[in-house]
Amino acid sequence: MKAPKPLFAGLFVALLAVITLPAMADVTLPTIDDKYVSVQEINPTRDAGYVVGDKLERTIILTVRKPYELIKESLPIVGYEHRFRGQVSGIELASIDAEEEKFSDRSVHTIHLVYQVFKSGRVAKPAVLRGEIVKLRLPGKTEMRQYRIPSFNFRISPLSVYGEVNLKNELSPFIPPFTISTTREQQVFKIAAGVLALSLLGLLYILGARTWLPRMGGAFAKAYRKIGKLPDNEQGSQQAIEMVHQALQQVAGHSVFGNNVERFLQEKPAYQAARPEIERFFNLSRQVFFDAKTPLDLGMPTRDWLRKFCRHMRDCERGLTPEVK
Amino acid sequence: MQDQQLADWRTQALKLESEVNKVVVGQENPVRLITIAVFARGHVLLEGDVGVGKTTLLRAFTRGIGGGYQRIEGTIDLMPNDLVYHTYLGEDGKPHVSPGPLLMSGQDLSIFFFNEINRARPQVHSLMLRVMAERTLTAFNKEHYFPHMLVFADRNQVEKEETFDIPSAARDRFMMEIPIVVPPAHDIMESLIFDTRFHDVDQLITNVEQDILKFDQLNSFAKVIQENISASPALRKYALNLWLATKDPVAYGIKVANVDMKRLVLSGASPRGMGMLLRAARVNAWLHNREAVVPEDIHAVLHETIAHRLVFSPVYEMRRTEIAREMLSGIVNAVTAP
Fold this sequence. Notes:
The complex is a heterodimer.
Chain A: H1 5-25, E1 37-42, E2 55-65, E3 69-70, E4 81-84, E5 87-102, E6 106-117, E7 125-129, E8 133-137, E9 144-148, E10 152-156, H2 167-170, H3 183-209, H4 219-229, H5 234-252, H6 261-267, H7 275-290, H8 302-317
Antiparallel strand pairs in A: 1-2, 2-6, 3-8, 4-5, 5-6, 7-10, 8-9
Helix pairs in contact in A: 4-5, 4-8, 5-8
Chain B: H1 2-23, H2 28-40, E1 44-48, H3 54-65, E2 68-73, H4 80-84, E3 85-89, E4 95-99, H5 101-104, E5 109-115, H6 122-134, E6 136-139, E7 142-145, E8 150-155, H7 168-171, E9 176-180, H8 186-194, H9 201-205, H10 218-228, H11 233-247, H12 261-264, E10 265-267, H13 271-287, H14 295-306, E11 311-312, H15 320-334
Parallel strand pairs in B: 1-8, 1-9, 2-5, 5-8
Antiparallel strand pairs in B: 3-4, 6-7, 10-11
Helix pairs in contact in B: 1-2, 1-3, 2-13, 13-14, 14-15
């Protein structure tokens, strides 16, 4: 007995449908034009050092312009694990959360994806959060388009290494270096920077004021140094006296003469200890420049006495008490 | 020989000061300055209030140096001839002429005091300035000489009505302008009120020893001082800088409070003024027993010999005493020596 033809035909169609329906689900659709879709990714901050059990969070902000709309059913489902050449990838979607915001000309889909690593190995290996494919359609029409979200590459590290390991073989460019504590170095660096800054400030001070310390480099200190370089003759003595006069004037802020020494000492009491020598200096100046018959006995050569006088005045300048006899 | 002469005269000069200081108390500085003017042979302007003892001071000096003392009061109706002669009708009913204050002492006139000179008219000033400069006067068909005369003139600085201010050119003829103020010490002030010896000036003056100096030798001795007291190159340079500073105080960085220094000075010290400054400074050095002038000698007489010569913009004339003092102090502070 032969089976009727229509029955065979029906069976054939039914068989064909059973075979081809799953295939139709995986069929590659035409890619949508880029002008209708744009994507913004917020990927994990590091791309290496993940071990089994770690979760990677990724946010995709997908903007779909009208007239297209996203087919929400095309979004990946929790538990789905990609395969590559029949092998499971070991990266599983742990959760998905999608929000939609509609505008007049577009709709914005914010998709939060959490993947979990279910894979480990003896060495670091590359892995990928596969680019998910979402589908879009025109409302009221059956025509569909697809869009591939960009993938994210990262590396999976081993949990631990057992037995002897040949580091040369095990070194992998995908393994980030172990972090070493740099706290001490940072402290040392800060201290060094502080010392450098202080040194620069000191240098600036020295260059600006030409003094090593606040009370150094005063008028009499300079005069003391300059007098030492003058020749030991009459002309040198005259120049030395002029220098001391200039120093006195610089300190006082006005001309100082023999008849206003008292005023000078009232204005600058730090020099009070040197009063006898100051008066002697004016007698010396008077003898050299104005009245050669002014009686004066210095007890030593003029230049030596002037140097000694300047040293004493320099001491006063620095807030010290000179040993004036 | 001259050293001995200088020493002897110095002793006498210091004695004169001491004698005058006995009767005019609390005026040591003006007494020293007048002593300097006497030996530098320079006329003097006196500045001070009424009744501070100017006349007493001059009479005491005259008694000490000898010679005649004459005085005249400046009034608005004073005429030049009033200085020279008086006319009057005698008992015989005939007109008579007697010599005025200038001629009364003849050549022995030592000190002539013109009180309140700015009350007299300019023609009187003119005659007086000529006599001061030339020490001669033509009157009664005769040339009269006053070789030993020093003029002391008082300016009333308080009252300005019916006065004729002395122009700068006339002021320049005076060697010094000496301020005479009431001594600030309370014991001296009390003494001036209660000490009866100050009440009778004629009697007071007799306390000064007479003729300590010889007035008719002062001119020749003044030359001795000027010739024997030297000025070193450093001092000459210093004096020159002081002079330049009076002419252009801005260049020396001199400032006076509330004064536009660029507009202040119309004319600085004159060559005559600087000459007088050095003459006075030499006398000061001699009085201090020095043979050379030092900057301190210049400082001792700077204000009194220079301040009245400075010519300021009219806008500052009312404050001239204060401004001149501050400016000259600034000059002393700014100009260095050596």
